[in-house]
Amino acid sequence: LPNTRFLYLPHCISLMRRDIGPVRRFAFAALEWIAAIKTCEYIACSQSEQSEIQRYVPFRTTHLVENAVLSTTTKRTTEGKAKKIVTVGQIRPQKGPLDFTVIARAVLKTHPNAEFVWIGDGDPAIRQRLEAAGVRVTGWLGRADVLDELALADVYLSTAHWEGMPVSVIEAMYAELPVVASSCAGNVDVIRHGRTGWLFHTHDEAAALIANLFADPVEASRVASLARAEAHTRFASDRYISEMDRLVGVTEQREAAAN
After folding, report:
1. Residue pLDDT, tens place only, 171-190
2. Contact at 8 Å (CB) between 87 and 256?
3. Closest CA to 194 of 174, 179, 173, 184
């Protein structure tokens, strides 16, 4: 395949992991070097991922094409109901489930009627710790049911330790949910602090942000509306297809054929 052009989309490349030490990270980088013996180009889904690829595989071109997510329905009203804080993902270290339990306990001390929900499943031992902290774990749900859970929620909480570019956070923006997210790779590429959501560094900061959203629903709604509007343009499937077409040369071919 001497004339074949190879494009590689890792979608959260292993080099981004924060649960491994420098030796394992070097091993992952070595595997990337071996795989890149055949000339290829990387396509990163976020600026954070692009930076990591360029850092460890500097001899290969890396393009940036941000993730896209299909639009979802408008968030339904939950006024007058107990406040519901949700997250979506597999119960595994990357998603920070133990951080979720700490934040849940802190918020429930001052807002005992609040409900914390983890949409997904995974490690049985960690699931037990979530449930012991008062978190309701739904288990795996179909996409329609996940969107129903988002539509009935008040706050989306991401406690991830690293991400490529989190689809679940973008879906929360589409659902017009105020997002409180850990300040990690991926999350920082999606959320603009104070404009389309809020980023936190500590458990106490996260708990305080959630309490502030409970106390100021007008501000929560304002930021969530801005986030939804941005999601419809920045993360639209049409934008993604257009960027990919241009990257692989389809757009130029169409323009040449039209002329």
Report:
1. 999 999 999 999 999 999 99
2. no
3. 179
